[in-house]
Structure formats: structure tokens, C-alpha cells
Amino acid sequence: DVKVTQSSRYLVKRTGEKVFLECVQDMDHENMFWYRQDPGLGLRLIYFSYDVKMKEKGDIPEGYSVSREKKERFSLILESASTNQTSMYLCASSSGGTGVNTEAFFGQGTRLTVV
Amino acid sequence: AQKITQTQPGMFVQEKEAVTLDCTYDTSDPSYGLFWYKQPSSGEMIFLIYQGSYDQQNATEGRYSLNFQKARKSANLVISASQLGDSAMYFCAMKGGNTGKLIFGQGTTLQVKP
User: Fold this and answer.
1) If we measure between CA atoms, which residue out of B52, B79, B53, B55 comes closest to residue B65?
2) CB atoms near residue B97 (< 10 Å)
3) CB contact under 8 A, A42 and B91
4) How far apart are CA B24 and CA B6, in angstroms?
5) B19 pLDDT tier (thresholds 50, 70, 90)
6) What is the separation, in whole angstroms, between the first and last Cα of chain A?
7) Over the Cα atoms of chain B, what is R_g?
8) Which of A61, A66, A75, A79 is nearest to A13 (CA)?
9) CB B76 within 8 Å of CB B108
10) Which of A34, A43, A46, A57 to substitute to test the interface with B, most B CBs within 10 Å?
């Protein structure tokens, strides 16, 4: 079975802190994604990567950056956490590179609270 | 730019009846894929069904079928014979472009009444 593992289930950080959310997948997938999920807004794409060291901005990249130094790991970085970044963060991966016919597999999510 | 829209924030259905969850999309890519996911209260994301833009027939997976109307840019999910365990949030998603970008709609909460 495909496994996508996010490093923390719950996280509480202070305003202004630099926050790292880690995601690891074990199926050699080319694509990895970071979303935030907020009530009424669905899943909004922050960043994605279709290959090692490649990254593309999603729909809401402001205040975030990402790193993909190895194929299996995709990190989301909040450079200076703010209260409006309190949310559920979901990582996903899929095979197929730039293809369109492969489903994504999700991690369990990280509920981040910024105080 | 790609866009996915789900206009039904919440839906109710009686157990054993069929229900349709709406999804419209917008893209200029000729090749794209459409997906539906289920998210129960436990929070996990469960893949349900896939439809490719070039597929001639509507996709079906057990009690799930996708009513794909390409000209109208809609990809509605039909759940037949609803069960109590179908109560969940449902998300429509689209993968396209030349980078495999995957975007989601706002979601629809479905509640199945006994």
C-alpha cells in the first residue's frame, strides 16, 4: 500500500516562528502536493512538485515555501508563521509525472495552530 | 487557469436513494483528468472514481458513477442506493496542464438519513 506520512498530527507554534512541515512517501511517486483545508474553502493548493528540485506555485503560495531535495520528501516551510496560517495541512503524492490519469494519495494531515 | 466549482455546500439524502453531487470545471487544456474523493469525519481522503477527458464512456465504480458532460464542463458524481456510511465530505478534483497540477473544489457535505 502507498503510504504518505506527515511528520506531525498536531502542531502549535507561535507567531513569527519558522515552521517546517515534513511529508514522506514510500512509492517513488514523481508528484507531491501541499494543500491547506479550511471550512467552506475546500482544499487549496499551496505548492506542488513534479520532480526532484522542481516546484510550482499553487493558488495560495504567499507566506509559504517548499523544498524537495529527495524524491520521497517534500517539505512545506512557513517562513514567519501568522495566525491566518492556522489550518489543516494535507500532503499528497501521485505517480505519472505530468500525466493526468493517476490519483493522489494523502497523508493523515497536520493540524497547525499559530498562537 | 484551471478552476473547479462545487456549488452545493450540503446535501441530504434518504437511505437507499440515489443522490447527485455537482461539479463544474474550467480549463483550456485538451487533456485533463477528473477525480472524486470522499473525506469521512475521520479526515482521511479516499479516492472514489476517475474520468479522463478523452474517455468516451462515463466512469463507474460500484455504486459510484460519474456523469461526464464535456461540452457543459461538468463531472457530477452519482451515488446509487445511499448508505449511512456514505455520510461524508465529497471533493471533486482536476488534474491537468503540463505539470500534473491537481486542484480541488470547495467540497459538498452529504448526510444520509435513515
Assistant:
1) B79
2) 20
3) yes
4) 7
5) very high
6) 37
7) 14
8) A79
9) no
10) A43
From CA B4, how far away is CA B104, in angstroms rounded? 6
Instruction: Give the sign of the dihedral formed by CA B71, CA B107, CA B44, CA A79.
Output: positive
∠ CA(B96), CA(A45), CA(B34), 5° rounding?
Answer: 35
- For A7-63, how does the pLDDT look when each residue is reduced to its tens digit (9 = 90+)? 999 999 999 999 999 999 999 999 999 999 999 999 999 999 988 988 999 999 999
The three-class DSSP label of residue A55 is strand
- By the CB < 8 Å criterion, does B7 face chain A? no
A37 within 8 A of B89, measured Cβ to Cβ: no
Mean pLDDT of chain B: 95
Contact present, A114 and A82 (Cβ < 8 Å): yes
Q: Is B18 on the interface with A (CB under 8 A)?
A: no
At residue B107's C-alpha, the angle toward residues B102 and B110, to 5°, is 140
The answer to whether the CB of A61 falls within 8 A of the CB of B111 is no
Q: Which of B53, B93, B100 sits opposite A99 (nearest CB)?
A: B100
Reduce the DSSP state of residue B73 to 3 states and report it: coil
| B82 vs A: CB within 8 A | no
The grid cell for A100 is: 493526468
